[in-house]
Specification:
binds phenylalanine; 356 residues; Rossmann fold; globular; alpha/beta; six-stranded parallel sheet
Length: 356
């Protein structure tokens, strides 16, 4: 089973709901990859794509990633994802209209798919989606009865994963004085940057939006690196928190880090890239293991009645999960990504098939 780039046409999911929203000229896709562990859940991504097929492939890959993410985390949800492929930056009223019509689509699915924020969408967007899509929309703002965005929780899970990796590499989990490079300072990268700075890491960041980079450097005092210089920048830990596919045959040869631990979904362009990293002596913490914090915390608190304390304990538990994955990789003599997928497959195989 491969969920990777290029293999997406062999998608092994359950169903895709496709709708063209003529008003905003936007293709809407909801992909339900697997309901074996529970109803499908996953974020809503809003982005521009080269064409409709690229958006469809992305939603397929991302929904398959959610199946593995929930399975490895031991969470009773199935894999799903939504992509809203917009033709251009939409004006606020256009965008809100689109989000409301998308919410109606989520409501039509009547609980087969629940959603939250993802790349390109925020808690404020979830408020709008929920106007028509409630009660299937999580991560709304506190003012609207939600628990707020998921980015800070995702950042916490990535941070504890970095501690696990540091203990393995350097004998101590502390991030103090470790050099860390965060690629992308959006909803996850930004809170992560602050957590790392507070822990005494020597942190730097890159950001493709130059104005945003300038503002964040000014606000945090953290140094920024030109986006084109990221791969070659020497650091202990490289932290992809922007787009997927950053780790591929060519980029891996340029990396000058000891480990990759980041929040971006689908960081590996192909499954073999996890082996390529291992061959170069770079410890790779599988993205779908370490970036589950937002999904776990927000869904746990809004759908399962968790307290914030419980959510924090569960998100910190990602550290132990990562340790298990890395131990399995060692004992089985396989790369970390294969180990994490093996764990996910075992959980899926052990589950009773759910009757609708
Ligand atoms: N963006 C989250 C992820 O990729 C998905 C998510 C967030 C799902 C919040 C539910 C609630 O893991």
């Amino acid at each position: 089973m491969s969920n990777r780039a290029g293999a997406a046409d062999a998608w092994d999911g359950e169903r895709i709901v496709t709708r063209f929203d003529a008003e905003a000229e936007t293709w809407m896709f909801v992909a339900i990859h697997s309901t074996r562990l529970g109803p499908a859940a996953g974020g809503t991504r809003l982005a521009q794509y080269p064409d409709r097929d690229a958006a469809r492939r992305d939603v397929q890959r991302l929904s398959a990633g959610m199946t593995d993410k929930w399975a490895v985390a031991g969470f009773p949800c199935g894999g799903g994802k939504a992509v809203l492929a917009t033709p251009r930056d939409l004006r606020p009223p256009e965008r809100e209209g689109l989000l409301r019509r998308y919410g109606a689509l989520v409501a039509e699915l009547a609980g087969a798919f629940t959603t939250g924020p993802d790349l390109g969408t925020s808690s404020a967007d979830m408020d709008v989606v929920a106007e028509t899509g409630a009660p299937y929309v999580f991560g709304r703002s506190r003012e609207r009865g939600g628990v707020g965005g998921s980015g800070g929780w995702t950042a916490l899970g990535v941070f504890v994963s970095m501690e696990v990796v540091c203990r393995r590499l350097f004998g101590t989990p502390s991030l103090a004085r470790r050099s860390v490079l965060v690629q992308g300072v959006g909803g996850v990268g930004r809170p992560l940057l602050e957590r790392l700075a507070a822990a005494g890491a020597q942190v730097r960041f890159s950001e493709s939006d130059a104005e945003r980079a300038r503002v964040i450097a000014e606000q945090t005092g953290v140094e920024s690196v030109a986006p084109g210089a990221v791969l070659e920048s020497a650091c202990d830990v490289f932290v992809p928190c922007a787009f997927g596919g950053v780790l591929h045959e060519e980029s891996i040869t340029r990396l000058r880090c000891r480990a990759v631990v980041g929040a971006a979904n689908n960081q590996l362009a192909a499954a073999e890239d996890s082996i390529r990293l291992a061959t170069r002596g770079i410890l790779y913490a599988p993205d779908f293991v370490v970036n589950a914090g937002g999904a776990i915390a927000v869904t746990g608190m809004e759908a399962m009645g968790w307290t914030p304390d419980r959510a924090e304990r569960e998100v910190r538990g990602i550290g132990a999960t990562l340790e298990r994955v890395l131990a399995l990789a060692d004992s089985a003599g396989i790369d970390p990504d294969s180990a994490a997928r093996r764990l996910a497959r075992e959980r899926l195989a052990a589950a009773e098939p759910r009757l609708a």
